[in-house]
Design brief:
Blueprint (H helix, E strand, L loop, with lengths): L4 E5 L4 E5 L3 H5 L3 H25 L5 E6 L2 E8 L2 H6 L11 E11 L2 E3 L7 E6 L5 E8 L9 E3 L4 E8 L2 H5 L21
Parallel strand pairs: 4-5
Antiparallel strand pairs: 1-2, 3-4, 5-10, 6-9, 7-8, 7-10
């Protein structure tokens, strides 16, 4: 256990001796082991809480696409939209995410920090499929490509890569968004 710290500086080598604070010195004693254990448990509890926030259950929406029913996570706030599917190692065949953007937005998506390839479906406020980006790969290094809507839209649907082709989805298709088109767009 250190008992004192000496530091010297300056042209005349001015030296100062500083005694460690009792709490710091006690960190290395038997009582300090208890303190370290308590600290480790507190950090573990905090990390568990944070991870539960990150993995918090998002609202889900059952959405028919092609001849299949998809369970899409709905994100309609800036923080959830920013997080999106980042860090996910897999996506269910009939899973995905539906982003609800404020009215008048030209959504832009990038694949930074993504681990899986996706199909991106850009959909207007009436449920019409306007634009599709298929088999979009994760971005490994900056700068990352940006996939932007050609016009203001309300929704972007992210599905597992290959889903749009498998389902036969084409621009111009009308998607059955149900009550989603009736609810107001999220605020800016």
């Amino acid at each position: 256990m250190p008992t004192a710290v000496m530091t010297c500086h300056g042209p005349g080598l001015i030296c100062t001796v500083r005694q460690p604070h009792r709490a710091v010195a006690g960190y290395w004693t038997a009582g300090g082991r208890v303190m370290r254990t308590v600290l480790a448990l507190m950090i573990a509890g905090w990390l568990t809480t944070v991870s539960s926030w990150v993995a918090a259950e998002l609202p889900r929406l059952a959405l028919p696409l092609g001849d299949e029913l998809f369970q899409l996570e709905l994100v309609d706030d800036p923080i959830s939209r920013q997080q999106g599917l980042m860090g996910r190692e897999a996506l269910d065949t009939n899973g995905g995410m539906l982003f609800d953007f404020p009215a008048g937005t030209r959504p832009a998506i990038w694949m930074r920090n993504m681990l899986i390839s996706l199909d991106l479906l850009f959909v207007d406020d009436q449920g019409q499929l306007v634009q599709i980006f298929e088999q979009v790969p994760p971005c490994q290094a900056m700068p990352c490509p940006i996939y932007r809507a050609e016009q203001p839209l309300r929704f972007v649907i992210e599905l597992a890569a290959g889903s749009a082709e498998r389902l036969g989805l084409q621009p111009g298709a009308q998607l059955e968004l149900g009550e989603l088109t009736l609810r107001p767009a999220p605020p800016q």
